[in-house]
């Protein structure tokens, strides 16, 4: 599946990348709102989770997957993973894109979420839940601080949440325990929070559990719909990139681990049946 040439210009599907299944919650919303676009999803399940890995490792793995998506003809790649957006996006944009094709684009999920959060909060106090990597990077406080300097941001790392989701333990007392524990912790540090960002693409699956432990009147911000809306907006503002996105309504799924495991798990993230193929991500340089 190489990209196609279209009046001398290269065009291909929009690429979506996540360490595993989480990015499917973003892709689901993109397909819902822009069904005409071809999309390719790549989950690096063989090496997931990324949330507790070092900067160097997340950067190296993410770069390999982005190069893989470029090799498949993608001109635009969305890092549908907060950990990769926090730790690898800037370096890839600044250091690698000039070499890989300066007309290509890689976008993340943190910036669009930070943009949107201003319209949710009334108290001006915002909470961010994410992986350890995302929280330690301070990407959310930094991005929100640039766009909405008056907002007060409190973060909480929830290292057990991704394993709970990936292992299908959502409806267990264990999930209840770890969700309550983290929600209590963040609200004890700032009881004025009225907006809570799910800063990890796995977390929407825990929404019913989170809602059970949420103080009244707190809004949960889920990224899928925000990213889909911002992506549509981006393509309207960048017709030169929109022309480089093929529109046949085809969505393909690849995983670096077992496709049968992927297909079984993926449905609950994507909302409809998924048929994936295995791919080996090459080390390019
Ligand atoms: N889904 C990824 C995110 O949004 C994290 C999952 C992982 O730890 O690999 O941060």
Instruction: Report the principal-axis shape.
Output: globular
Q: Which cofactors or ions or other ligands sit in this model?
A: D-glutamic acid
Distance between the termini: 22 Å
Could you spell the SSE succession in H and E letters?
A: EEEHEHEHHEHEHHEHHEHEHHEHE
Our count of helices gives 13
Radius of gyration: 18 Å
> What is the typical, i.e. mean, pLDDT?
95
Total number of strands = 12
| Structural class computed from helices and strand pairing | alpha/beta
Strand order of the largest sheet: 6-5-3-4-11-12
Largest pleated sheet = 6 strands, parallel
Overview of this protein structure:
The protein has 285 residues and is an alpha/beta fold. 46% of the residues lie in helices and 18% in strands. A six-stranded parallel β-sheet has the order 6-5-3-4-11-12, with helices on both faces. It has a four-stranded parallel β-sheet with strand order 8-7-9-10, sandwiched between helices. Helix 2 (55-71) runs parallel beside helix 4 (89-101). The longest helix is centred in the first third of the chain and has 17 residues, at 55-71. It is globular, with a radius of gyration of 18 Å. The two termini are 22 Å apart. The mean pLDDT is 95. Bound molecules: D-glutamic acid.
Features:
alpha/beta; six-stranded parallel beta sheet; four-stranded parallel beta sheet; 12 strands; globular; binds D-glutamic acid
Characterize this entry briefly.
46% of the residues lie in helices and 18% in strands. It has 285 residues and is α/β, with parallel strands linked by helices. The longest helix is centred in the first third of the chain and has 17 residues, at 55-71.
């Amino acid at each position: 599946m190489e990209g196609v040439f279209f009046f001398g210009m290269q065009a291909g599907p929009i690429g979506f990348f996540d360490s595993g299944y989480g990015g499917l919650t973003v892709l689901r919303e993109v397909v819902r709102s822009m069904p005409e676009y071809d999309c390719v999803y790549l989950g690096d399940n063989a090496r997931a989770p990324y949330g507790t890995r070092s900067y160097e490792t997340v950067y190296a793995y993410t770069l390999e997957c982005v190069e893989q998506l470029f090799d498949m003809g993608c001109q635009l790649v969305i890092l549908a993973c907060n950990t990769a957006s926090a730790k690898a996006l800037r370096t890839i944009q600044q250091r690698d894109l000039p070499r890989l094709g300066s007309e290509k684009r890689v976008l993340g999920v943190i910036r669009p979420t930070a943009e949107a959060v201003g319209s949710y909060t009334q108290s001006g106090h915002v909470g961010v839940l994410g992986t350890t990597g995302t929280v330690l990077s301070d990407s959310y406080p930094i991005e929100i601080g640039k766009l909405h300097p008056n907002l007060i941001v409190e973060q909480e790392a929830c290292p057990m949440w991704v394993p709970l989701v990936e292992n299908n333990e959502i409806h267990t007392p264990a999930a209840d325990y770890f969700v309550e524990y983290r929600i209590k912790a963040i609200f004890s540090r700032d009881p004025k929070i009225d907006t809570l960002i799910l800063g990890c693409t796995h977390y929407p699956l825990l929404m019913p559990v989170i809602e059970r432990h949420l103080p009244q009147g707190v809004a949960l911000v889920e990224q899928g719909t925000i990213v889909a809306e911002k992506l549509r907006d981006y393509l309207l503002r960048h017709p030169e990139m929109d022309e480089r996105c093929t529109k046949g309504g085809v969505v393909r799924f690849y995983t670096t681990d077992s496709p049968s495991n992927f297909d079984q798990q993926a449905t609950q993230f994507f909302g409809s049946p998924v048929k994936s193929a295995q791919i080996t991500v090459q080390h390019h340089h």
